[in-house]
Specification:
The chain is α+β, with helices and mostly antiparallel strands and about 70 residues long. The protein has 2 helices and 5 strands; from the N terminus they run E-E-E-E-H-E-H. Strand 2 and strand 3 form a beta hairpin.
Length: about 70
């Protein structure tokens, strides 16, 4: 499956960055892991395969597909 680069709000190639899986339209987000214990304690229904990424609102409002 191919990833399509949608955009980034960072400089020098760092995260956060937004990609789309071309075949499915699903989004892939590169960003910093959520590590604050108080925030992690509030999450629900977590699967072992899941990770939680902090995403600046600007990244999604600027580059997420509108359709």
């Amino acid at each position: 499956m191919a990833l399509r680069f949608l955009g980034t709000t960072s400089e020098h190639g760092n995260c956060p960055t937004l990609y789309e899986i071309e075949e499915t339209g699903d989004l892939v987000i590169q960003g910093d892991l959520l590590t604050d214990p108080k925030h992690l304690a509030q999450l629900r229904d977590i699967k072992e395969s899941e990770a939680f990424i902090v995403v600046p609102r600007e990244l999604l409002t600027r580059y997420a597909p509108k359709e």
